[in-house]
Specification:
Shape: elongated
Structural class: alpha+beta
Number of strands: 17
Radius of gyration: 28 Å
Mean pLDDT: 85
CATH class of the largest domain: Alpha Beta
CATH architecture of the largest domain: 2-Layer Sandwich
Helix content: 25-40%
Low-confidence stretches: none
Distance between the termini: 122 Å
CATH topology of the largest domain: Heat Shock Protein 90
Length: 470
């Protein structure tokens, strides 16, 4: 008799191994992104409990982040987690029967909060209040070690909250995390503040408040130069494109100058580093008000592709913002970490064509005015810096033309940027480089220490020319 036929078949164990699941979930996410995942939850709570039709819908909503070598805490007053949603909020992954979230949120996969806590430490306590519902949930080292039990214990809160909201308290920090929160605290705090000030600039500008280790975070929004004058043909305005896809995703794109373009002398002498850096240059991608990509200057956003040059410091004044909005966050072109763009998204690839089209206008302008940046500065400074929200408002008052391509059908505005006047044949441009200290000495000699290098050069030429003509 065949021995195999004597085996009594029983169902095989195929449930996930908890320790493997948790370690793999946290391996590819940075600590900064894990913290921003928790902040996303607070923002989503504010969205659920705010009137987004008013100018400052998130006023009086806040999140406080505090950390040291022993613990991490994030606490908000953004509505809490109602008991009716506890089976969905604390599961690893989003169940198919999960209720549809309110428009404007970004939670899609149901792993952000859990992944962030698992990333930092072995013991987590979540306390929440939503109306009459007030409870706490504990994730302990014992729970993490128990491969059979996936149910989380629920208990009453030890101290009642004054208002609806959630507090997440993480202890038993892993050594690498504790070091960054303790020994590297100053540098890590500074980096986190920079990330929040840029990635949540639009949310903070609408009233939401964030503090990190007691430091109030100020928004750092990108502003584009917009000449609101009547001269349509010779004014600096952003390139604008907007559309709404068949499945309801709204797209609004604007790219332009954030400031005058620097001269070659300023770039080579590093003088622009004091005035502004490359930090704001490049593309910012928004998904439901949150920046999933900030100031990108790579091929991902079209630099170095399709006749667009690679990023160089001469393009330091060019910035673009593209916004995707959808009631269904799964339709947004973002990754699971919500800190990156899904480069294979058909929607993003089509919009990227418009991003490159807009960029070419301003890189071409920069190249055409090379060597005559002082004249270009006069053109750019006729405009005023407008926030992204203000640019959207201005787009309603300018003539938008329909686009013809099927996949990018929508409306666009292509600015007619001013061209440099052709120099008279009898005139030539002189350009040379000298030590900064020597230029400053000459500027003081001429009685104006604030003179630009090109002005010092002109004064020197005129002075010597006058002597030569004698």
């Amino acid at each position: 008799m065949n021995p195999i036929s004597q085996i009594k078949y029983v169902p095989l164990e195929a449930s996930p191994v908890k320790s493997f699941f948790v370690s793999m979930l946290t391996r590819d996410i940075r600590l900064e992104d894990a913290i921003l995942d928790l902040l996303d939850n607070s923002v989503d709570g504010a969205i659920r409990n705010s009137n987004r039709e008013i100018d400052k819908p998130y006023a009086n909503k806040h999140a406080e982040i505090d950390f040291c070598g022993n613990s991490f805490t994030i606490s908000d007053n953004c509505g809490g987690i109602p008991w009716s949603l506890h089976n969905y909020a604390f599961r690893l992954g989003k169940a198919s029967d999960s209720p549809q979230d309110v428009p404007g949120t970004v939670g899609t996969y149901g792993i952000g909060m859990k992944r962030a806590m698992f990333k930092m430490g072995g013991h987590c306590l979540i306390s929440t209040r939503s109306g009459s519902d007030e409870y706490s949930i504990e994730i302990s080292p014992e729970w993490l070690a128990n491969e059979k039990d996936w149910k989380l214990p629920v208990q009453p809160v030890k101290r009642s909250r004054d208002e609806d909201g959630t507090t997440i308290f993480v202890t038993d920090l892993y050594p690498g995390i504790a070091k960054r929160f303790d020994e590297d605290s100053k540098a890590f705090t500074s980096e986190l503040i920079k990330l929040v000030s840029t990635h949540y600039a639009f949310i903070i500008d609408k009233g939401f408040e964030v503090s990190i280790n007691g430091i109030h975070v100020k928004p750092r929004p990108t502003k584009l130069i917009f000449d609101t004058g009547t001269d349509i043909k010779n004014s600096v305005k952003p390139y604008i494109y907007k559309t709404k896809t068949s499945d309801g995703v709204e797209v609004f794109l604007a790219v332009g100058f954030t400031r005058p373009i620097p001269s070659q002398n300023e770039i080579l002498n590093g003088q622009e580093a004091n005035r502004y850096s490359s930090m704001d240059a490049g593309w910012t991608v928004l998904c439901n008000d949150r920046a999933v990509l900030y100031a990108d200057r790579s091929e991902l956003t079209g630099w170095g592709e399709a006749n667009v040059p690679r990023y160089h410091t001469q393009f330091i004044a060019i910035s673009g913002i593209v916004e995707f909005r959808s009631d269904d966050p799964s339709k947004l072109p973002t990754t699971t970490t919500k800190r990156g763009v899904d480069a294979s998204s058909p929607l993003f690839l089509q919009v990227k064509n418009k991003m490159r089209e807009g960029m070419r206008l301003f890189t071409d302008y920069t190249n055409k005015w090379k060597g005559r940046e002082d004249e270009s500065k006069e053109q750019i400074l006729k405009g005023v810096p407008l926030s992204f929200a203000q640019v959207k408002i201005q787009s309603e008052s300018i003539r938008m033309n329909p686009t013809l391509r099927t996949f990018t059908r929508g409306e666009q505005f292509v600015p007619n940027l001013p061209l440099p006047k052709i120099l008279e044949p009898a005139k030539r441009r002189i350009s040379f480089i000298r030590e900064s200290k020597d230029i400053s000495n000459l500027a003081e000699y001429f009685g104006n220490s604030d003179m630009e290098p090109y002005e010092v050069g002109g004064q020197c030429f005129d002075l010597l020319l006058k002597e030569a003509r004698r």
